[in-house]
Amino acid sequence: MPDRESRARRRSVSILACTLAAGLAQSLQGQELEPRSYAQTPTGVNFIAAGYAFSTGNVLMDPALPIEGLDADLDLIFLRYARSLALFGRSAKVKVLAPWSAGDWVGTLEGEEQIQRRRDSGAGDLRLALEVNFLGAPALDREEYREYDQRWIAGASVKIVVPTGDYDSDKLLNLGSNRWTIRPEVGFSRAVKNWTFEGAASVWFFTDNADFFGGNLLSQRPLHVLKSHVIYSFRPGFWTALGAGWGNGGQTFVNHEPRQTLQSNWRFGWSIAYPITPAQGFLFGLGSAVTRRAGGDYDTISIAYQYSWGGKG
Protein backbone atom coordinates (compact mmCIF):
# COMPACT_ATOMS: atom_id res chain seq x y z
CA MET A 1 0.00 0.00 0.00
CA PRO A 2 2.78 2.58 0.69
CA ASP A 3 4.21 2.03 -2.82
CA ARG A 4 0.78 2.47 -4.36
CA GLU A 5 0.12 5.61 -2.34
CA SER A 6 3.51 7.04 -3.26
CA ARG A 7 2.91 6.42 -6.96
CA ALA A 8 -0.50 8.08 -6.80
CA ARG A 9 0.93 11.06 -4.97
CA ARG A 10 3.74 11.47 -7.51
CA ARG A 11 1.13 11.35 -10.27
CA SER A 12 -0.74 14.27 -8.72
CA VAL A 13 2.36 16.30 -7.84
CA SER A 14 3.48 17.06 -11.39
CA ILE A 15 0.08 17.49 -13.04
CA LEU A 16 0.36 21.28 -13.13
CA ALA A 17 4.08 21.57 -13.79
CA CYS A 18 3.82 22.23 -17.52
CA THR A 19 0.97 24.66 -17.00
CA LEU A 20 3.19 26.58 -14.63
CA ALA A 21 6.11 27.00 -16.97
CA ALA A 22 6.03 25.96 -20.60
CA GLY A 23 3.01 28.04 -21.61
CA LEU A 24 3.89 31.08 -19.56
CA ALA A 25 6.01 33.14 -21.94
CA GLN A 26 3.53 32.56 -24.76
CA SER A 27 0.50 33.33 -22.61
CA LEU A 28 1.94 36.78 -22.00
CA GLN A 29 1.52 37.43 -25.71
CA GLY A 30 -2.15 36.36 -25.63
CA GLN A 31 -1.92 32.78 -26.85
CA GLU A 32 -0.70 30.15 -24.38
CA LEU A 33 0.22 26.51 -24.82
CA GLU A 34 -0.47 24.76 -21.49
CA PRO A 35 -0.53 20.95 -21.57
CA ARG A 36 -2.63 19.15 -18.93
CA SER A 37 -4.77 22.16 -18.11
CA TYR A 38 -7.77 19.84 -17.72
CA ALA A 39 -6.00 16.94 -15.98
CA GLN A 40 -7.67 15.38 -12.94
CA THR A 41 -6.15 16.36 -9.55
CA PRO A 42 -7.06 15.28 -5.98
CA THR A 43 -8.91 18.00 -4.07
CA GLY A 44 -7.17 20.12 -1.46
CA VAL A 45 -3.68 19.97 -3.00
CA ASN A 46 -1.61 23.18 -3.07
CA PHE A 47 1.03 23.90 -5.70
CA ILE A 48 3.63 26.65 -5.66
CA ALA A 49 6.10 27.13 -8.48
CA ALA A 50 8.94 29.48 -9.36
CA GLY A 51 10.41 29.68 -12.82
CA TYR A 52 12.42 31.52 -15.41
CA ALA A 53 11.81 32.03 -19.14
CA PHE A 54 13.84 33.75 -21.84
CA SER A 55 12.32 34.90 -25.14
CA THR A 56 14.04 36.46 -28.13
CA GLY A 57 12.64 37.92 -31.36
CA ASN A 58 9.45 39.89 -31.98
CA VAL A 59 8.13 39.43 -28.44
CA LEU A 60 5.98 41.93 -26.52
CA MET A 61 4.21 41.95 -23.18
CA ASP A 62 1.18 43.51 -24.91
CA PRO A 63 0.23 42.03 -28.33
CA ALA A 64 -1.88 45.08 -29.28
CA LEU A 65 1.06 47.39 -29.96
CA PRO A 66 1.45 48.33 -33.67
CA ILE A 67 5.19 47.55 -33.71
CA GLU A 68 7.11 46.32 -36.77
CA GLY A 69 10.56 44.83 -37.14
CA LEU A 70 10.90 44.37 -33.41
CA ASP A 71 14.09 42.86 -32.06
CA ALA A 72 13.75 42.05 -28.37
CA ASP A 73 15.17 39.98 -25.55
CA LEU A 74 12.82 39.33 -22.63
CA ASP A 75 13.74 37.77 -19.28
CA LEU A 76 10.79 36.62 -17.20
CA ILE A 77 10.73 35.42 -13.59
CA PHE A 78 7.44 34.25 -12.12
CA LEU A 79 5.82 32.93 -8.97
CA ARG A 80 2.61 30.94 -9.25
CA TYR A 81 0.23 29.42 -6.73
CA ALA A 82 -2.55 26.92 -7.54
CA ARG A 83 -5.01 24.91 -5.47
CA SER A 84 -7.24 22.03 -6.49
CA LEU A 85 -10.77 22.03 -5.09
CA ALA A 86 -14.28 20.67 -5.50
CA LEU A 87 -16.85 22.84 -7.27
CA PHE A 88 -20.42 21.48 -7.54
CA GLY A 89 -18.97 17.99 -7.13
CA ARG A 90 -16.48 18.37 -9.99
CA SER A 91 -12.70 18.81 -9.86
CA ALA A 92 -11.49 22.38 -10.25
CA LYS A 93 -8.39 24.55 -9.82
CA VAL A 94 -7.71 28.18 -9.02
CA LYS A 95 -4.43 29.80 -10.06
CA VAL A 96 -2.64 33.07 -9.37
CA LEU A 97 0.46 34.10 -11.31
CA ALA A 98 2.70 37.10 -10.61
CA PRO A 99 5.40 37.84 -13.24
CA TRP A 100 8.47 40.07 -13.11
CA SER A 101 10.16 40.99 -16.39
CA ALA A 102 13.18 42.70 -17.87
CA GLY A 103 13.19 43.58 -21.57
CA ASP A 104 15.49 45.06 -24.19
CA TRP A 105 13.67 46.24 -27.34
CA VAL A 106 14.29 48.06 -30.63
CA GLY A 107 11.85 48.44 -33.55
CA THR A 108 9.66 50.81 -35.59
CA LEU A 109 6.12 52.11 -35.12
CA GLU A 110 4.31 51.06 -38.32
CA GLY A 111 7.42 51.86 -40.35
CA GLU A 112 7.37 55.54 -39.45
CA GLU A 113 9.06 56.21 -36.14
CA GLN A 114 12.32 54.59 -35.04
CA ILE A 115 12.23 53.32 -31.46
CA GLN A 116 15.59 53.62 -29.78
CA ARG A 117 16.90 50.60 -27.95
CA ARG A 118 15.41 50.59 -24.49
CA ARG A 119 15.73 48.35 -21.47
CA ASP A 120 13.14 48.23 -18.70
CA SER A 121 12.37 45.97 -15.77
CA GLY A 122 9.53 45.65 -13.29
CA ALA A 123 6.29 43.88 -12.44
CA GLY A 124 4.02 42.47 -15.13
CA ASP A 125 0.24 42.10 -15.08
CA LEU A 126 -1.24 39.70 -12.51
CA ARG A 127 -3.04 36.65 -13.92
CA LEU A 128 -5.98 34.85 -12.27
CA ALA A 129 -7.62 31.65 -13.52
CA LEU A 130 -10.41 29.23 -12.64
CA GLU A 131 -10.62 25.80 -14.31
CA VAL A 132 -13.52 23.35 -13.89
CA ASN A 133 -13.81 19.82 -15.31
CA PHE A 134 -17.52 19.19 -15.82
CA LEU A 135 -17.34 15.77 -17.54
CA GLY A 136 -15.33 12.68 -16.58
CA ALA A 137 -13.54 14.23 -13.61
CA PRO A 138 -15.52 14.10 -10.33
CA ALA A 139 -14.03 15.69 -7.21
CA LEU A 140 -11.83 13.03 -5.55
CA ASP A 141 -9.70 12.92 -2.41
CA ARG A 142 -6.31 11.18 -2.51
CA GLU A 143 -7.77 7.80 -1.48
CA GLU A 144 -10.38 7.90 -4.27
CA TYR A 145 -7.85 9.27 -6.76
CA ARG A 146 -5.73 6.10 -6.48
CA GLU A 147 -8.56 4.19 -8.19
CA TYR A 148 -9.23 6.83 -10.85
CA ASP A 149 -8.67 5.84 -14.49
CA GLN A 150 -8.99 8.72 -16.93
CA ARG A 151 -10.83 8.35 -20.20
CA TRP A 152 -12.68 11.45 -21.47
CA ILE A 153 -12.51 14.78 -19.61
CA ALA A 154 -14.25 17.95 -20.76
CA GLY A 155 -13.94 21.26 -18.98
CA ALA A 156 -13.97 25.03 -19.15
CA SER A 157 -11.82 27.79 -17.76
CA VAL A 158 -11.67 31.55 -17.48
CA LYS A 159 -8.52 33.64 -17.18
CA ILE A 160 -8.36 37.31 -16.21
CA VAL A 161 -5.33 39.54 -16.76
CA VAL A 162 -5.37 42.35 -14.19
CA PRO A 163 -3.60 45.64 -15.17
CA THR A 164 -1.19 45.72 -12.21
CA GLY A 165 2.05 45.86 -14.19
CA ASP A 166 4.38 48.83 -14.59
CA TYR A 167 2.95 51.29 -17.13
CA ASP A 168 3.92 54.78 -18.33
CA SER A 169 1.87 56.45 -21.09
CA ASP A 170 4.93 58.46 -22.12
CA LYS A 171 6.58 55.21 -23.21
CA LEU A 172 5.42 53.06 -26.10
CA LEU A 173 6.90 49.84 -24.70
CA ASN A 174 5.75 48.83 -21.23
CA LEU A 175 5.74 45.76 -19.03
CA GLY A 176 2.06 46.31 -18.12
CA SER A 177 -0.85 46.67 -20.56
CA ASN A 178 -3.03 49.20 -18.66
CA ARG A 179 -6.20 47.31 -19.62
CA TRP A 180 -8.20 44.28 -18.52
CA THR A 181 -8.22 41.04 -20.49
CA ILE A 182 -10.58 38.07 -20.10
CA ARG A 183 -10.20 34.70 -21.81
CA PRO A 184 -12.99 32.06 -21.63
CA GLU A 185 -12.09 28.59 -22.90
CA VAL A 186 -13.54 25.10 -23.39
CA GLY A 187 -11.37 22.01 -23.73
CA PHE A 188 -11.15 18.23 -23.60
CA SER A 189 -8.65 15.53 -22.65
CA ARG A 190 -8.64 11.89 -23.81
CA ALA A 191 -6.28 9.29 -22.31
CA VAL A 192 -5.38 6.08 -24.18
CA LYS A 193 -2.88 3.97 -22.22
CA ASN A 194 0.29 6.10 -21.91
CA TRP A 195 -0.95 8.71 -24.39
CA THR A 196 -3.15 11.73 -23.73
CA PHE A 197 -4.70 13.88 -26.47
CA GLU A 198 -6.00 17.38 -25.71
CA GLY A 199 -7.74 20.19 -27.54
CA ALA A 200 -9.18 23.58 -26.62
CA ALA A 201 -10.81 26.67 -28.10
CA SER A 202 -10.70 30.12 -26.51
CA VAL A 203 -11.37 33.80 -27.17
CA TRP A 204 -9.38 36.71 -25.74
CA PHE A 205 -11.42 39.88 -25.05
CA PHE A 206 -9.65 43.19 -24.37
CA THR A 207 -10.88 46.40 -22.75
CA ASP A 208 -9.68 49.76 -24.10
CA ASN A 209 -6.49 51.49 -23.01
CA ALA A 210 -7.61 55.11 -22.68
CA ASP A 211 -4.09 56.28 -21.76
CA PHE A 212 -2.11 54.84 -24.64
CA PHE A 213 1.16 56.36 -25.87
CA GLY A 214 0.75 60.11 -26.32
CA GLY A 215 -2.68 60.20 -24.67
CA ASN A 216 -4.40 58.17 -27.40
CA LEU A 217 -7.12 55.52 -27.20
CA LEU A 218 -6.06 51.95 -27.99
CA SER A 219 -8.70 49.26 -28.63
CA GLN A 220 -8.50 45.70 -29.89
CA ARG A 221 -10.91 43.19 -31.38
CA PRO A 222 -11.15 39.65 -29.93
CA LEU A 223 -8.41 37.12 -30.65
CA HIS A 224 -9.65 33.57 -31.42
CA VAL A 225 -7.40 30.64 -30.53
CA LEU A 226 -7.38 26.88 -31.22
CA LYS A 227 -4.76 24.60 -29.66
CA SER A 228 -3.94 20.92 -29.17
CA HIS A 229 -1.43 18.71 -27.32
CA VAL A 230 -0.13 15.17 -27.50
CA ILE A 231 1.34 13.89 -24.22
CA TYR A 232 3.24 10.70 -23.45
CA SER A 233 3.68 9.49 -19.84
CA PHE A 234 6.76 7.38 -19.12
CA ARG A 235 5.59 6.83 -15.53
CA PRO A 236 3.55 8.81 -12.99
CA GLY A 237 4.82 12.39 -12.92
CA PHE A 238 7.36 11.85 -15.72
CA TRP A 239 5.97 12.90 -19.10
CA THR A 240 6.65 14.88 -22.25
CA ALA A 241 4.29 16.93 -24.45
CA LEU A 242 4.13 18.47 -27.92
CA GLY A 243 1.70 21.31 -28.55
CA ALA A 244 0.49 23.56 -31.36
CA GLY A 245 -1.82 26.56 -31.37
CA TRP A 246 -3.30 28.92 -33.95
CA GLY A 247 -4.60 32.42 -33.26
CA ASN A 248 -6.54 34.70 -35.60
CA GLY A 249 -7.98 38.21 -35.21
CA GLY A 250 -7.00 40.75 -32.59
CA GLN A 251 -6.80 43.75 -34.92
CA THR A 252 -6.03 47.00 -33.08
CA PHE A 253 -7.32 50.56 -33.45
CA VAL A 254 -5.76 53.83 -32.31
CA ASN A 255 -8.40 56.56 -31.84
CA HIS A 256 -10.79 54.25 -33.77
CA GLU A 257 -8.45 54.18 -36.79
CA PRO A 258 -7.57 50.60 -37.84
CA ARG A 259 -3.93 49.49 -37.80
CA GLN A 260 -2.28 46.78 -39.86
CA THR A 261 -2.26 44.41 -36.89
CA LEU A 262 -4.66 41.61 -37.85
CA GLN A 263 -3.02 38.48 -36.43
CA SER A 264 -2.67 35.00 -37.91
CA ASN A 265 -0.12 33.25 -35.75
CA TRP A 266 1.12 29.76 -34.95
CA ARG A 267 2.62 28.62 -31.64
CA PHE A 268 4.59 25.41 -31.12
CA GLY A 269 5.90 23.99 -27.88
CA TRP A 270 7.69 21.02 -26.35
CA SER A 271 8.04 20.29 -22.64
CA ILE A 272 9.20 17.54 -20.31
CA ALA A 273 8.34 17.13 -16.61
CA TYR A 274 10.36 15.10 -14.11
CA PRO A 275 9.57 14.51 -10.41
CA ILE A 276 12.57 14.46 -8.05
CA THR A 277 10.61 13.58 -4.88
CA PRO A 278 6.92 12.86 -4.20
CA ALA A 279 6.39 16.56 -3.47
CA GLN A 280 8.82 18.24 -5.89
CA GLY A 281 9.46 18.37 -9.60
CA PHE A 282 11.13 20.23 -12.46
CA LEU A 283 9.92 21.11 -15.93
CA PHE A 284 11.85 22.23 -18.99
CA GLY A 285 10.17 23.77 -22.04
CA LEU A 286 10.92 25.10 -25.52
CA GLY A 287 8.53 27.23 -27.56
CA SER A 288 8.41 29.01 -30.91
CA ALA A 289 5.98 31.46 -32.49
CA VAL A 290 5.52 32.07 -36.22
CA THR A 291 3.39 34.86 -37.67
CA ARG A 292 1.88 35.25 -41.14
CA ARG A 293 0.72 38.83 -40.51
CA ALA A 294 1.21 40.85 -37.32
CA GLY A 295 2.05 39.55 -33.87
CA GLY A 296 4.76 37.62 -32.13
CA ASP A 297 7.59 35.82 -33.95
CA TYR A 298 9.98 34.55 -31.32
CA ASP A 299 11.64 31.61 -29.54
CA THR A 300 11.35 30.77 -25.83
CA ILE A 301 13.16 28.55 -23.34
CA SER A 302 11.84 28.00 -19.80
CA ILE A 303 12.49 26.06 -16.62
CA ALA A 304 10.43 25.81 -13.43
CA TYR A 305 10.57 24.19 -10.00
CA GLN A 306 7.36 23.13 -8.23
CA TYR A 307 6.46 22.03 -4.72
CA SER A 308 3.10 20.62 -3.55
CA TRP A 309 1.45 19.86 -0.23
CA GLY A 310 -1.96 19.20 1.33
CA GLY A 311 -4.92 17.06 0.38
CA LYS A 312 -6.50 14.15 2.17
CA GLY A 313 -5.66 10.49 2.13
How are the SSEs ordered, and which strands pair?
Elements: H1 2-13, H2 17-21, H3 24-27, E1 45-58, E2 67-87, E3 90-109, E4 113-123, E5 126-135, H4 142-145, E6 152-162, E7 181-192, E8 195-206, E9 209-212, E10 216-220, E11 223-235, E12 238-249, E13 252-254, E14 257-258, E15 263-277, E16 280-291, E17 297-310
Antiparallel strand pairs: 1-2, 1-17, 2-3, 3-4, 3-5, 5-6, 6-7, 7-8, 8-11, 9-10, 10-13, 11-12, 12-15, 13-14, 15-16, 16-17
Describe the structure concisely:
This protein is mainly beta and 313 residues long. 8% of the residues lie in helices and 61% in strands.
Helix content: under 10%
Give me the strand/helix succession. HHHEEEEEHEEEEEEEEEEEE
Give average pLDDT, whole number: 83
Beta content comes to over 45%
Describe this protein's structure.
- β16 (280-291) and β17 (297-310) form a beta hairpin.
- The protein has a single domain (2-310), classed as Autotransporter beta-domain (Lipocalin).
- The longest helix is centred in the N-terminal third of the chain and has 12 residues, at 2-13.
- It is built from four helices and 17 strands.
- It is globular and about 60 Å long.
- 8% of the residues lie in helices and 61% in strands.
- The chain has 313 residues and is mostly beta strands.
- The strands form two sheets. Strands 1-2-3-5-6-7-8-11-12-15-16-17 form a twelve-stranded antiparallel barrel. A four-stranded antiparallel beta sheet has the order 9-10-13-14, with no helix packed on it.
- The model is unreliable at 1-27 (pLDDT under 50).
